[in-house]
Design brief:
InterPro entries: HAD-like_sf (IPR036412), HAD_sf (IPR023214). The chain is of the alpha/beta class. It contains four helices and five strands, in the order βαβαβαβαβ. The chain has a single domain, classed as Rossmann fold (3-Layer(aba) Sandwich). The protein is globular, with a radius of gyration of 14 Å.
């Protein structure tokens, strides 16, 4: 059996919310995504963002939706998503075999799967069923959570 995932990396556009932040069409949070964020967080799964666009706009959108504190790492830019996942793994101190990646675009998932075959990729349309998968069983922890790079341990960003 594969190890339980310790981190789920989200492409926020068309996954966490409808639309795209960088072109101003980012809308309301998707209820299924919010439920999944909360359920997996309660099971000990860390969350991170790997998105395309402008980092400051994405962070502002996460803050505006009240979910920035759910994310331990945020990588947003114009490079490859596989590169963002490698940086997230280093930042959080987790192996690629315990990272999942959710994205609405098959091409992005294929790029990550091709370059990082240990990372498990999921289609954004399946966000609501992720907590039911065996990959997302509760994560046993013997050490404390790493301090998120966005601030001190779980101190809400203002």
């Amino acid at each position: 059996m594969r190890p339980a995932l310790h981190c789920l990396v989200w492409e926020p556009d068309h996954t966490l919310w409808n639309g795209t932040v960088s072109d101003g069409s980012g809308g309301a949070l998707r209820p299924a995504a919010l439920r999944t964020l909360r359920l997996l967080r309660d099971r000990g799964v860390l969350h991170a963002v790997a998105g395309r666009g402008h980092r400051d706009r994405t962070v502002a959108a996460l803050r505006g939706h009240g979910v920035l504190e759910y994310f331990s790492a945020v990588e947003v830019g114009w490079g490859r998503k596989s590169g963002a996942l490698l940086r997230i793994a280093r930042t959080l101190g987790v192996g690629l075999d315990v990272i999942g990646f959710v994205d609405p675009e098959p091409l992005e998932r294929a790029e990550v799967a091709g370059r990082l075959p240990l990372v498990r990729c999921y289609a954004a349309r399946n966000t609501d069923v992720l907590p039911a998968l065996a990959d997302f069983r509760p994560v046993p922890r013997s050490n404390p959570y790493p301090t998120p790079p966005l601030g001190f341990a779980r101190v809400p960003a203002h």
